[in-house]
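Section 3.1: Structural characterization of target chains.
Under the original work plan, the team committed to producing a structural model for every single-chain target entering the pipeline before any wet-lab resources were allocated. The record below documents one such target. The sequence was received from the expression subgroup and is listed exactly as submitted; it comprises 117 residues.
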Amino acid sequence: MLRLLVDENIPRKLATILKELNVDTIRLQDLDLRGISDKELINTANELRRTILTRDSDFTTPSLLSLARNGVIYISYQPSRGEISRLAKRIASIAKQLEPKSGLLVVIEHEHIEVYD
C-alpha cells in the first residue's frame, strides 16, 4: 500500500477525501513545508517513506523520478470540483494495490491511468 505525501498543488478537498477513503495521507502544508523545492520535497518523502502525489510534471523527469525512493503519482490535468471525488477513488484504488518502490511512476490522465515501474 502506498502512503502519500501530497504536494501543495493538490486540492485540499482531494486530500481530505483520500483520508476518508483510508489512504494514509499527509499534506506538505500540514508539515509547514509550503514553498519547498522539488528536491526538498523528494527528501521529505524519502525520510517519511511516502509516495509523492503531485500535479508538477517535473517529478516525471528521470532526474527527479530516480531520486523518489517510494515513487510518484502524477495527475496530468486540473480536476474540476465535480471530478474530485471520482479522482480520489481512483487514487485510493491505486494506493491500495501498489507497493512503493524507486522508479514507480503512476500517471493519471482524465480518462485513463498508466503505471510505469
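Helices lie at 12-20, 38-48, 62-65, 84-97.
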